[in-house]
Design brief:
62% of the residues lie in helices and 10% in strands. The chain is α+β, with helices and mostly antiparallel strands. It folds into two domains: 15-42 and 136-302, Multidrug efflux transporter AcrB transmembrane domain (Multidrug efflux transporter AcrB transmembrane fold), CATH 1.20.1640.10; 51-131, 2-Layer Sandwich (Alpha-Beta Plaits). The strands form two sheets. It has a four-stranded antiparallel beta sheet with strand order 3-4-2-5. Strands 1-6 form a two-stranded parallel sheet.
């Protein structure tokens, strides 16, 4: 039985012919994402802002405004009420109590539970999550620090393994991946919590691996085909690794699509962030990172000259002016 091949061995797509269009698309998406972050901001979960999160399953559909009035009448502070999953599944987020003690938080949760059960007979109050303001601030700082250090470490690693141009290309491509995912969360106002931070770190790891595979093939081809133009070398390298890129990305996206559609609500944000990150990461691996190499005019002279052996062949193509 012959193995399944989604990408034929003879594939020769001129990816770099679309690099200018791809650059414009990437810039537009990044600018829009930054604008969304500046205007709408992120819907931080209790992991980062503190407070209590109460999940409720109501016996029938209710008006969110009427439920909000009942909750606000308790005097527990400004509440945030959102639907998740079905219209009967409600998430109620309360702010951190003024005195911020475990006893006051427990009392507030019990008052909310009693009010809901009395107003909506048959309602089921599920899990109650609570995070203090101090802990939430520390979680936000450490999460942001983890993302920043991961990006810097990646740039340094690629700089030493390849050349500084590759490090800059990978860093800019990864920055685009992160900004677009954050912009999507700002647009949809999905809850941004520690699960999302975990998704972003996972996206960085996957996207980095994808870029290193292509960069490694670019380096090999730069040494092997010394009279071939950089555009032709990039096209050759992308096509040679295209089968691996397509199979890896497609298999992961199928698994994530299943989690998004039928997975539990608690990891919906994580799964959606991962799915979008894989798509954007594959895009940036092909166009953004490689486009930076063209801008920096990377040539075979950036690497040690390959020692020629009898029988070595070399493809020749004109350099792009």
């Amino acid at each position: 039985m012959r193995p399944l091949k989604l990408v034929p061995d003879t594939t020769n797509i001129d990816f770099m012919a679309f690099r200018r269009i791809a650059t414009v698309i990437s810039l537009v998406i990044v600018v829009v994402s930054i604008a969304l972050l500046g205007t709408r901001g992120l819907n931080f979960g209790i992991d980062f802002v503190g407070g209590q999160l109460v999940r409720v399953t109501l016996p029938s559909d209710v008006q969110i405004d009427s439920l909000r009035e009942r909750v606000d009448s308790l005097g527990l502070g400004e509440s945030t009420i959102q639907q998740f999953g079905s219209p009967r599944d409600i998430a109620i987020r309360l702010p951190v109590p003024e005195n911020e003690t475990a006893q006051s938080a427990s009392q507030n949760a019990q008052r909310l539970r009693d009010t809901i059960e009395e107003a909506y007979p048959g309602a089921r109050v599920g899990s109650v999550e609570a995070v203090s303001g101090k802990v939430s601030g520390e979680l936000f700082e450490k999460g942001a620090l983890a993302l920043g250090l991961a990006m810097i470490a990646i740039a340094i690693y690629i700089w030493f393994r390849f050349e500084w141009q590759f490090g800059v290309g990978a860093l800019l491509a990864l920055a685009q991946d992160m900004i677009v995912v954050l912009g999507f969360f700002a647009l949809t106002q999905l809850e941004f919590d520690l699960n999302t931070i975990a998704a972003l770190l996972t996206i960085i790891g996957y996207s980095l691996n994808d870029k290193i595979v292509i960069f490694d093939r670019v380096r090999e081809n730069l040494r092997k085909y010394r009279r071939m133009g950089i555009v032709e070398i990039l096209n050759l390298s992308i096509n040679e690794t295209l089968s691996r890129t397509v199979m890896t990305s497609l298999s992961i996206m199928l698994a994530l699509a299943a989690l998004v559609l039928i997975g539990p609500d608690v990891i919906f944000g994580f799964s959606l962030a991962m799915f979008l990150g894989i798509v954007i990461g594959t895009w940036s691996s092909m166009f953004v990172g490689n486009g930076i190499l063209i801008q920096f005019n990377v040539t075979p002279d950036n690497f040690d000259r390959k020692v020629a052996t009898p029988g070595d062949g070399e493809r020749i193509a004109p350099r792009e002016r």
